[in-house]
Amino acid sequence: MANPKKILNDPKKVVPEMIEGLVAANDGRLYKLDNLPALIRTDIPDGKVALLIGGGSGHEPLFHGFVGKNMGDGAACGQVFAAPSPDVIYEAAKAVNRGKGVLFLYGNYAGDNMNFDMATEMLEDDGIDVRTVRVTDDVAAAPPERTHDRRGIAGDIYMIKIAGGASAELDSLYEVERVARKAIANIRSMGVAVAAGSIPETGKLTFELAEDEIEIGMGAHGEAGIARQKMKPADAVADELMEKILTDLPFRKGDEVALLINNLGATTMMEMLIVNRRIRQILEREGIKVHRTDIGTWLTVQEMAGFSVTLMKLDDELKHYLDMPAESLGYSRM
Amino acid sequence: MTETLNAGSSRAMLEAVSRFVIERTDMLTDADLAIGDGDHGIGMRRGFEAALSALETQSVDTPESAFKVVGTAILSNTGGAAGAVFGTLFRAGSKAFAGKDAIDGDGFAAFLESGLEAVIKRGGVTEGQKTMIDAIGPAARAARGNVGKGLSAVVASAAEASLSGVEATRDMIATTGKARSLGERSLGHPDPGAISISLILKAMQEFTATA
């Protein structure tokens, strides 16, 4: 299969060049640490509980595009699809810490877990309080009794929004952690891929999918999903994803939810709106009320085509943090 | 044959290891594309390029410091799961040489044993889950079993055992890492991390057999 066309300079320099562009795009609201791929808000209030997010690059705007007011205070960036190293996380955590400790929020992958844990050990040696919440929203990754084995996918966006809001208002690291844990307990996602993405430095697609095939439940790096199927209509794809998501939590009649439909990279807004139409029909049938809808491009896998659906069951507290204003390159609201 | 490695020869061996792995980037990429996302080759290249440069520029006055320099460079520059576990292997393994001017067969076996223990602790994995420890485990046991035969024989036995370990991962179903989601689809493919261990030990075997 032909390598994907990309507009790049030196493929080895994609991460530093992307970061340079990202800093510039934030118009002074964040800065990069010297010699390390980490981005920090320029205006973190004194005495604020700090929120550090991070993970592999190549999923832009996730994670580093979500640094800003009422979002992440900083982000540790890895290479493409690879977790950041402990020293990047350690220095980023020190840079965001305002004396109230640091919440680590990232997707549940072996590499992220090990590198963030190593950084936690280094920070604890320095007397800095660190708590960790891992995003585990992908219902395709493991059965409900093993949520700790689930990957983090587009639920990351709502997690950053909720934890970002909570860390701006709440005074203690443990309270922020409590809210974040409540959020992840109420978020479920699942995706579908119709075409693969590639790693710029190898130029190779991360998996092969035939012209007439889709993969239900595929992960954000091309990890295998639940089933490879023949191409089928949007309504049938939405039905299958919603069936898995709704029964997993489960979401019930009378629940109020936030709905997020995330473009994996190369799917059109038109397709996602057609999917949204079907999802709303399903939610109406089930008696589930939608408090707000987010449709956009937040967690990408390069040129992967496909989308994921995320539902978050809301209570008054989660609704409050979801509805707070936020300012970042990847996600803003008034 | 080399039967002891002092600081200088440890450095030379680790430089040879780094070049050996860097030259095999594409092979590791292809192995990872079969069951992962295909970044293992470029990750290992990044780590060992950093290791080469660190060995050239940093002071290395003991075998312990040579291995630690490599581990720290890998940990800081590779990223991902590979950076954490390969960095840990060299950093934790280097402690087996503490206070020693030279590495002998016993020291090399101790390096693999302490590296293995630290990687198991860091990764929360056991043998049989289709990871790099399925190559280190057999290598450490073979090394210990051949300690009486001298360093070059110990390293050779470890390298051979790691290759058997790589082959054995073909029949394992991944239960950790990004390959976990493949389930039975991971059968038939060797683990890329285990392959990297076998490359590292193969380069060490060639170095100690000829130097």
Describe the fold and architecture.
The complex is a heterodimer of chains A (334) and B (211). Chain A has 2 domains: 11-185, Rossmann fold, CATH 3.40.50; 187-322, Hypothetical Protein Tm841, Chain: A,domain 3. Chain A is 32% helix and 24% strand. Chain A has helices at residues 14-25, 86-96, 110-125, 155-169, 173-185, 234-248, 269-286, 316-323, and strands at residues 30-32, 38-41, 50-57, 74-80, 102-107, 130-135, 187-195, 198-199, 204-205, 213-216, 227-230, 256-263, 289-296, 305-313. In chain A, strand 8 (198-199) and strand 9 (204-205) form a beta hairpin. In chain A, helix 2 packs across helix 3, helix 4 crosses helix 8 (316-323) and helix 6 (234-248) crosses helix 7 (269-286). The model of chain A has no long low-confidence stretch (mean pLDDT 96). Chain B has one domain (7-210): DhaL domain (Serine Threonine Protein Phosphatase 5, Tetratricopeptide repeat, Alpha Horseshoe). The A-B interface holds A 56, 78-87, 109-111, 114-115, 117-118, 140-141, 149, 151, 199, 201-202, 204, 206-207, 219, 221-225 and B 29, 33, 36-39, 41-43, 46, 75-85, 122-123, 176-183, 185.
